[in-house]
Amino acid sequence: MTGDRTAPAPDARTLRELTAALGHAPRTYGPVGDLGAVPDRVVAAARSLPEHLRLPFLRLVVAAAEHRWLPWFAAEVVDGGADPRRFGRSGVLVVAAPLNELLRTPLTVLLGRLDAGAGWVAVPADRLQWERGNEFTGAAARPCPALNHRWPAPAGVSRIHLRRTAPAEADPVLRARRWLASRIAAATAAPTGLMTVDRASLSADARIAHAALIREQRMAGPAAATVPGFAGPAQWYAAADPDDVP
Question: 50 is in which domain, residue-wise?
Answer without folding.
Answer: 12-86
